[in-house]
Write a structure and sequence with these properties.
Keywords: DNA damage, DNA repair, Endonuclease, Hydrolase, Nuclease
Number of helices: 10
Family: Belongs to the DNA mismatch repair MutL/HexB family.
GO molecular function: ATP binding; ATP hydrolysis activity; ATP-dependent DNA damage sensor activity; endonuclease activity; mismatched DNA binding
Bound molecules: adenosine-5'-diphosphate, magnesium ion
Distance between the termini: 57 Å
Domain DNA mismatch repair protein S5: 220-338
Oligomer: single chain
Helix content: 25-40%
Protein name: DNA mismatch repair protein MutL
Amino acid sequence: NIRPQRRPIRQLDDAAANRIAAGEVVERPASAVKELVENALDAGASRIAIDYADGGKRLLRVTDDGHGIAEAELPLALSRHATSKIDGSDLLDIHSFGFRGEALPSLGAVGRLSITSRALGASSAFEIAVDCGKPGPVRPAALRRGTAVELRELFRATPARLKFLRTDRAEAQAIAEVVRRLALAAPQVGFTLTDRSGDKPREVFRADPATSPDALEHRAREVLGRDFVANAIPIDAEREGLRLTGLAALPTYSRGAAVACHLFVNDRPVRDKLLTGALRAAYHDLLPRDRHPAAALFITCDPQSVDVNVHPAKAEVRFRDPGVARGLIVSGLRHALAAAGHRTATTISD
Ligand code: ADP
Ligand code: MG
């Protein structure tokens, strides 16, 4: 019966705290891409370029033409819980993808990170680098506009995590999935995804900025394919302050896997059991058991009626009234599908 020895409590240093946070925020290269692209979107970018090499393990780079970071604020961007997006007074009043101030310090703690930025109106660009938690000085750099964040040797500081990564091919696929999902969330923004593993760069995905009123349809064609759009019906429904819009495929265009189901809450891509459950319920009786509906659905609501501060990767949300969200999806889709001639045999309560 060996009792653990008592040891003094001590405060971990920043590098250790950031590595721990990174464990939750950055699971794989694709999660780093998600954080960096979200930052670019939050900065009001109209074009975002994503480059990677070796499934993102060797290199990840996200370049945007957004408002940039001021020279004096570059060290702050790398410090934990430092953000320009909220003032901390109301965690239910969030209008940006980011708000935790954790992504950049986390990434800087587990790899070699550099941020080059030229703030809007500034006459030149500056750069700061951090290598596995050790930040360097702010230095003059060359960049015409916006921000370029580069991450090399991801997880060098956490070999355990490195070991759990899958093949370059699988990691690259996960990166492409994240980019396509965010591209769907922001049809007005142009995206290019380039694989720089080999001698010649290879364009993996490209979506041009869409400005027309049917921007979503345009973008859905690029992301989900012409077939999806040709077989989809527009959705527009409302319930108690929650609005549901987007495109949902007819049951005749179902998929063998649940990959074609994209859900957004206030433009944030979410993976949510409640919402996917509602989507399945809406198609109940219209689809064989092993088929999945394809859809790109957007719930828009007052930020106050949904809590996004649930999960470090911000992939989950909590509605103040989950029943309303569920009912909106089930009845909104049912009505649209019925109007298109696809009526369910049984009635399931909304
Ligand atoms: P958060 O996004 O939660 O604020 P991050 O660690 O991702 O936290 O970023 C910290 C801060 O750095 C942001 O609040 C923002 O001010 C700035 N920043 C990060 N990326 C960019 C970017 N691409 N363009 C402009 N500012 C950025
Ligand atoms: Mg962020």
